[in-house]
């Protein structure tokens, strides 16, 4: 099986305040940079063979310390981009929360298209395709994928068979890691929203065999 580590980018100054969407120029805060550096320590014993990232700065900046420590390039993929919120991009969450459209997103997110942007089913489809494609490119390997909260949540919900309208029940914090083991149609979730010790993801060879196995 391939172990895919879905990593939400570190904290930004706009987190929880503004829907940034595909906006450029959103960088990590001091707290976010510390979370990115902490990933190096937390994943210290995990033999990562490739690092993928959304093209947006906040994700590439999160991936950069880990990539430097491992001597690996950061491979960007557009299908790991944040939700395209269209006309809502750049607007404050407090302001949007007063609208009827926002309430519809909270009740039945599967039925809403962001004005001038994407639907969440569209985002879920590209997120799941990206995860499966990356896993297929690294059979029996371990890969890090740095992306956005909703992309992680939608991918997890889809791969687990959770109805999309319930995907917001999954909490995905800045700098957190959710770990999936995938092989063809088989999926095992090993971690969700983990912000602590990851020693359990360090592979150990089974007795009498050399094939890698992930604990947990």
Features:
17% strand; Rossmann fold; 216 residues; alpha/beta; 6-stranded mixed sheet; 6 helices
Structure overview:
There is one protein chain. 37% of the residues are buried. The protein has one domain: Phosphoglycerate mutase-like (Rossmann fold, 3-Layer(aba) Sandwich). The protein has 216 residues and is α/β, with parallel strands linked by helices. The protein is built from 6 helices and 6 strands. It has a 6-stranded mixed beta sheet with strand order 3-2-4-1-5-6, sandwiched between helices. It is globular, with a radius of gyration of 17 Å. It has helices at residues 30-42, 57-70, 93-96, 100-107, 120-137, 149-160, and strands at residues 2-8, 50-53, 74-76, 142-147, 177-183, 186-194.
Counted up, domains total 1
CATH class: Alpha Beta
Low-confidence stretches: none
Question: What portion of residues belong to β-strands?
Answer: 15-25%
Largest pleated sheet? 6 strands, mixed
Helical coverage, percent range: 25-40%
In short:
By secondary structure, the chain is of the alpha/beta class. Helices cover about 30% and strands about 15% of the residues.
